[in-house]
Structure formats: C-alpha cells, structure tokens
C-alpha cells in the first residue's frame, strides 16, 4: 500500500524547528533512524508507533512526542510510512548529505575507528587521517593515507571536512582540537580523556569508554546487592530490578 507523503517542515522553518529539538530527543531520533533503516531492508512499508517504540526501547507516547518535533504525526489506524519517516529524520539530523570526517590519532583506538566501514555506510565517510608517529604517517588504512597533523588545515579544507574525531593521548588533544577548529571543522567527537576548550559555535561530544564501563559496573554492583539483600528471593515481596521491572520470588 502506498501512502501519501507525510508533509514536514522545510527550508527556514525546518532549520528553526531543528534548533528547538531537545538533545535527548535528537539522540532517540538517531535510534529511530537506525531501526527504520532495518525495517526498510526487511521490506516493511509502514510501522505503528507501538511497534517502533517497542523495537527501540521507549514508550509509544514518548516516541510520538519525539516525532512531533519534526512535524510527523503518522496516519491514524496505519502509523508511519517507513521510507517517508526515514527521510524526514535523516533531513532533521543533517544526514541528507554526507559529512566528511577527519580522524586524528591512529593508535590502537584510532586504527580501529579508521578501519570501521560502518561510518561511510551511514553518511560519515572518513576522508582524512592524521598522526605524528613516523611509523604511521605515510601508510594507508582502509585505503586512506595517514598524513601528518601539520597538514590538518590544508587537507580538511581541500576535502570539506565538517566533523573531526580526536583519538590522541590527552596531552595532545587540545592542540589538535585547535587545529581542527582553525581548519573550519564545526563538530568534534572527542575520545581523548580531557575536556576540550572550543569556541561557542563548535559542538563537542565526549566519549569516555572508561566512564561508561564504570557506570555499567555500578549497575552490576547494585544488582548483586539487591540479590543478596534479605528477602530478595524469599517471602518479603519483589525486589526492584535495574530496568524498572520487578524480580519476582521463585
């Protein structure tokens, strides 16, 4: 069944709307986009809010509110057209055109990032690689030449880089960040264990894998403490689980 296109904002209205979307909603839109892509690959033409919410781990009311920010309200009794909603979210997230990425630091983590083919498939082709190690500069990773960090400004300008990823040791990260900013890079994904200082117009997102593991360790410890507590498996009632459900007595 072919549904009529679901109209959404465009032009200046779309830009204004995008600026008003909460950060948490933006993160969930990215999750919805991934799931819609999977549904499209499976041949699905429509999806209900309940189905999409269940598949992405949110409640349907929150999903509908998230999608209302981009002007998508679905069709009563039918739901959302998968292809149209996928395109609408792509446009909102700025994925209707590719964003060239530069990666600085191709050590262990950087090498793994450089070799990951999934970035290009989602609209983020790695266009440039940089390092200072003479054993790395001049080699190719995934078909891309590793160049010296002193060439960041020239290479990023030539290749239209808009997003930088920093995977250097902490002490080198700020200097690298400054070079990326001078090269016109607008957004930075920072894997280095430091807080970067950037101009107001530059967006930085920090990825600290150690912190994420520490958060997971907390949940493991809390679950073990709950299981060891008096009455956890006895007759004193259910013990709350970390996901908000209940652990029922056997």
Structure in words:
The chain is an alpha/beta fold and 250 residues long. It is built from 10 helices and 11 strands. The strands form 3 sheets. A 7-stranded mixed sheet has the order 5-6-4-3-7-8-9, sandwiched between helices. A two-stranded antiparallel ribbon has the order 1-2. Strands 10-11 form a two-stranded antiparallel sheet.
What is the overall number of helices? 10
Count up the domains: 3
> SS-based structural class?
alpha/beta
User: CATH first level of the largest domain: which class?
Assistant: Alpha Beta
Q: What helical percentage do the residues reach?
A: 40-55%
Instruction: Please tell me the overall pLDDT.
Output: 84
* CATH fold-level label of the largest domain: Rossmann fold
């Amino acid at each position: 069944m072919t549904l009529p296109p679901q109209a959404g904002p465009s032009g200046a209205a779309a830009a204004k709307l995008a600026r008003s979307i909460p950060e948490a909603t933006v993160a969930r839109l990215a999750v919805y986009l991934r799931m819609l892509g999977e549904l499209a690959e499976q041949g699905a033409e429509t999806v209900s809010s309940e189905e999409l919410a269940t598949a992405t781990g949110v409640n349907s009311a929150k999903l509908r509110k998230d999608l209302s920010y981009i002007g998508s309200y679905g069709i009563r009794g039918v739901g959302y057209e998968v292809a149209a909603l996928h395109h609408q979210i792509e446009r909102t997230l700025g994925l209707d055109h590719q964003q060239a990425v530069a990666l600085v630091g191709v050590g262990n983590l950087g090498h793994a990032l450089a070799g990951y083919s999934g970035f290009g498939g989602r609209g983020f082709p790695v266009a440039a690689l940089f390092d200072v190690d003479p054993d790395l500069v001049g080699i190719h990773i995934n078909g891309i030449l590793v160049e010296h960090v002193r060439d960041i400004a020239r290479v990023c300008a030539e290749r239209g880089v808009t997003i930088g990823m920093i995977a250097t040791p902490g002490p080198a990260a700020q200097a690298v960040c400054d070079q990326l900013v001078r090269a016109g890079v607008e957004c930075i994904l920072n894997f280095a264990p430091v807080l970067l200082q950037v101009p107001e117009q530059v967006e930085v997102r920090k990825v600290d894998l150690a912190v994420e593991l520490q958060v997971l360790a907390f949940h493991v410890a809390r679950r073990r403490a709950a299981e060891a507590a008096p009455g956890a498996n006895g007759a004193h009632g259910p013990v709350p689980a970390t996901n908000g459900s209940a652990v029922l007595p056997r």
